[in-house]
Amino acid sequence: xxxxxxxxxxxxxxxxxxxxxxxxxxxxxxxxxxxxxxxxxxxxxxxxxxxxxxxxxxxxxxxxxxxxxxxxxxxxxxxxxxxxxxxxxxxxxxxxxxxxxxxxxxxxxxxxxxxxxxxxxxxxxxxxxxxxxxxxxxxxxxxxxxxxxxxxxxxxxxxxxxxxxxxxxxxxxxxxxxxxxxxxxxxxxxxxxxxxxxxxxxxxxxxxxxxxxxxxxxxxxxxxxxxxxxxxxxxxxxxxxxxxxxxxxxxxxxxxxxxxxxxxxxxxxxxxxxxxxxxxxxxxxxxxxxxxxxxxxxxxxxxxxxxxxxxxxxxxxxxxxxxx
Amino acid sequence: xxxxxxxxxxxxxxxxxxxxxxxxxxxxxxxxxxxxxxxxxxxxxxxxxxxxxxxxxxxxxxxxxxxxxxxxxxxxxxxxxxxxxxxxxxxxxxxxxxxxxxxxxxxxxxxxxxxxxxxxxxxxxxxxxxxxxxxxxxxxxxxxxxxxxxxxxxxxxxxxxxxxxxxxxxxxxxxxxxxxxxxxxxxxxxxxxxxxxxxxxxxxxxxxxxxxxxxxxxxxxxxxxxxxxxxxxxxxxxxxxxxxxxxxxxxxxxxxxxxxxxxxxxxxxxxxxxxxxxxxxxxxxxxxxxxxxxxxxxxxxxxxxxxxxxxxxxxxxxxxxxxxxxxxxxxxxxxxxxxxxxxxxxxxxxxxxxxxxxxxxxxxxxxxxxxxxxxxxxxxxxxxxxxxxxxxxxxxxxxxxxxxxxxxxxxxxxxxxxxxxxxxxxxxxxxxxxxxxxxxxxxxxxxxxxxxxxxxxx
Lengths: 324, 458
Hints:
Order of helices and strands of chain A: HHHHHHHHHHHHH
Distance between the termini of chain B: 52 Å
Low-confidence stretches of chain B: 46-56
Oligomer: heterodimer
Helix content of chain B: 25-40%
Largest interface: A-B, 45 and 36 residues
């Protein structure tokens, strides 16, 4: 069977774009796990709440075909900032009100609390926008949304589509990843985070305010989830109380796949899952006729199981036995 | 005068109902035969002439069954089970209101019994209102354990009936659906139903399930025939939501499309919980179909499938076709402007296409609800009428006798026009299928606009 290079590249583009969005959410899981060794199962719903907040903010403005482009850019940036701040504040508040009180409780307690919070936030989501999928207000006109940049801007005669939204995803995600890397690697607070991750008690003895440092990790994770939420809402053209479940699950998987606690690992895991997801949805069937989109979760979790079997610490992580 | 009587007289005067329907409803409202006759005689001659009383077309149900409105024998409870929250809110609530209106039209009584109706929800909010196996089982068990319950109305989702039919069957309780279209519940069709169906649902060996809606082989065949022979389409790609109903109707359409000389480029399930179908649509668009058929119900994300389809396959190039699981305003709301131009079939007629007593039903429901009723609600009205007439026939609080009377429903004058009966499998003999296009109404709001009746492919 002939290899269809056009389709392969197309699904690669879709995979990388989706993977970046997953990576942004995965960083929230990995940041928190790296410091307090807690899987924050409410993180997917924090992401969802960011999207609903952005949806509400944008809905306050009347946007039509005559709205000038600079107003649309201003509204978009405002909604992006609002979503980031809202999700950041929500994640911080969850830590402050729930997890902090359970810091010294058995591990199961915060884990169950996280699952409970996830359901509570879903319920709030239903109350907020209802249980149906909603289309966000049209910030990007349909004719611009469907432009193929490779044809229109670069004059290439190709069926591979690169849309403005793909560039927007990359344009927002990469600076955020670079900023996070700088923040954790180069700032005093970042050093405090790494110290707390290595040994909480020693960090406290060295004068680091551990609770504040943990709160900052939650805040950062929430900020990234908020950014991902706003971009995802426009990338998928949908807002729903359920959107946190699938992205949250894939992001958690990405974090584990890359090596939970490892920031680069979360990005690698996110990209890998994004590519597997899109290839399974579209490309594999050309070679395996019975394959279809319904097998995508099987493919993703199959990859996860394989990696876990041969490299239990994840692709870039190190397997460390429990402390004794 | 009671406003309900005023409206009833108006309906007669405007020719929307005939004399027989007038007298039935007047009796249900407690009017004496003499007073009702007086009111009828005062109606304009034109209205009286327009009343096809002799043929009985102005009455829903079998006009030969006398309706008994006394309640001296006690009460009978009727439970219904279908979802009515989330994306199922309008469809489910409208069906409940139609059931209630049918009961009110018949005086909330039959066969000497007062009728008590209790709608049960089989959906859960976390599933966007979609049905839940646990809830369906709980509802069916509640019905069989209530000694006053003589009929179980439901379900809407065929998958849910796979759970409840064996439960009601074991208790000898009749079950009747306004929305189940999966063929395997009542008959075996090679390639479209599972091995052992339908007998696996009837452990007692006695059939107890009926439906007032035509099943999917009729709908799937009719729409494939319409797409190929009337619209000139040649290549289809078929998707389904992996549900019993969605997969079944999609398979029947796909097979019919091939049998009629069309080419099927692919048949696959999509993940209803996915957040994005861009890659799936990229693959499909690359194959160049001229029809995309999506067998699904509204809670399983078909609006998002349509949205992502339209970003790659414009409306003037690729036709979107869907079954009656999508004939729900929430489908339009979810897809927004991209919904325009999509075609959806319905195994029946939408309210806008109803005539005579059907138009009267649609007008009264619209007034009652404040919006045009969901298309399925007419079948819910007929379901309730079948049950009431069976109790009128049996005149006893006996599950077996009422089941027997329901199964032998004949000469049923439909809201959709025409007359049907239950076949030996419990299916309706009606084969009405309509095609509807999503278009803006006068106010610009997108609605399902009835195009034509396409009937059965056979």
